[in-house]
Amino acid sequence: xTGRLLIANWGTDVYGPIGGRPVxxxxxxxxxTYQTVKTVRTDRxxxxxxxxxxxxxxxxxxxxxxxxxxxxxxxxxxxxQVR
Length: 83
Known about the structure:
Blueprint: E1 2-4, E2 6-9, E3 14-17, E4 22-28, E5 35-41, E6 47-49, E7 58-64, E8 73-74, E9 78-80
Antiparallel strand pairs: 1-6, 2-3, 4-5, 4-7, 7-8, 7-9
């Protein structure tokens, strides 16, 4: 999985990366709820890059819980079909 965590700077109208923040890798089946499988940290550029074995079909997403100056962010779930 690859994703990037950015925060808006309303003073400069520019989005900037957030480094060193925990991001959850989450999975759910078609009928289940999202569960955290792994937690990784963003690099200096705000990037998250990780691998997780898919053992069942379902949906994967990245979830950032937020902090005092940036709200939470949740990526839409991407479907994965295991054959």
